[in-house]
């Protein structure tokens, strides 16, 4: 990674923070000239991950970073919580798996919408999901 | 605090226009409010306008599908209109199907579709 810069740090505490998180990533994606489809995918991914935090951990944090390698630029979004963790991660990212009111598309769907997806979780400690979406824009 | 989404009644139809990004609690209130209005009577169609939404995630997708399927049980047809191209692509990639809904491009086409659907009864898979 040649360069990285934190653009925004969002605390997730209640239902309204979901709208706030979507608004933040919407504004940032627009500023960075992501195409409309990638903007929508970013907003949707952030929405899914934020809701997971609210549903399972109650509260958590989102860090949105601008990252740059020698060849490409993008956004790295890290969503962390100190919730119960996920006992079976492989199952959790399986399409159709759900323990809540969703469609079981939360994690599996987020993974499909992004260029990179990684998850680290420990039962009783919490969960960290990192997603990356690269941009083709020259205007970063 | 959560936003309120107006439900407008025109003849026998209820029209719901999402005016901005809404939180989950407001969305759930909308669902129960809409079904209550249907239960109160004389409603045969629901039109959900998503024109302003730049995102439909799995929660909202499921909610819209639930509204349509619950309405169908009460013999009310639901048409969803105004899905933006980028939202459509994202929905497909997420694998969300908006089951139970019929779709039209805009409000005008949506009303026409609702009127067509009302002519045929019991054609919904619930």
Q: Which features does this protein show?
A:
heterodimer; A: 140 residues; alpha+beta; five-stranded antiparallel sheet; 4 helices; globular; B: 126 residues; alpha/beta
How would you explain this protein's 3D organization?
Chain A has 140 residues and is α+β, with helices and mostly antiparallel strands. Chain A has four helices and five strands; from the N terminus they run E-H-H-E-E-H-H-E-E. Chain A has helices spanning 15-31, 36-57, 89-92, 106-113, and strands at residues 3-12, 60-68, 73-81, 116-122, 126-135. A five-stranded antiparallel β-sheet of chain A has the order 1-2-3-5-4, with helices on one face. In chain A, a hairpin with a 3-residue loop joins strand 4 and strand 5 (126-135). The mean pLDDT of chain A is 89. Chain B has one domain: Transcription Regulator spoIIAA (2-Layer Sandwich). In chain B, helix 1 (24-40) runs parallel beside helix 2 (58-73). The mean pLDDT of chain B is 90. Chain B is an alpha/beta fold. In chain B, strands 1-2-3-4-5 form a five-stranded mixed β-sheet, with helices on both faces. The interface between A and B is medium-sized, with 27 and 25 residues.
